[in-house]
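Take a look at the protein record below and tell me what you see:
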Amino acid sequence: MGFGDLRSATGLRLLNDFLADKSYIEGYVPSQADIAVFEAVSTPPPADLFHALRWYNHIKSYEKQQASLPGVKKTLGKYGPADVEDSTGATTDSKDDDDIDLFGSDDEEENEESKRLREERLAQYESKKSKKPTLIAKSSILLDVKPWDDETDMAKLEECVRSIQADGLVWGSSKLVPVGYGIKKLQIQCVVEDDKVGTDMLEERITAFEDYVQSMDVAAFNKI
């Protein structure tokens, strides 16, 4: 169990993968486990490791409350993926051995062997992670599309909206909702993949049908 050296690119990648489907190191609230790992990460993770960076920034906001967070802080090697060998204590053990070994050659050979085994296990872990299906973040969005007036052809307006096609966008059910003075708005549901489709893009594409559409608003937005 462990992340290895969290100051290295490999350790940070392990942390990022570990947090892909988790908000915290342990449980569902910030704890001393998060503080222990946070302190081992010397600088903010790079932007491409967005799971680790999101977690780092979140835990950093608790800097003044660290002592009050629940749990008991354990050694770093007690946290992280179960199938990665903990190497966090290797440096301390080597130093203790150096104090009683006048030559140190055996320790150097053992350290090289430990390093080789650690790299092999990290490579195996990365291989396992790459074979797992990636979790795709999706959202359900309810849009209100308003026409110019009561003479707007709402069937044509909906046809225009549904003509918008994009990778990661699926249109759902719709209905007309009265707004007053004989005017009805189109309320339409869609499901989007968060990394591919955003509300700004939807608004830009929908309001481009300016002969029919006056405006577009997001009525509801829920993560799936």
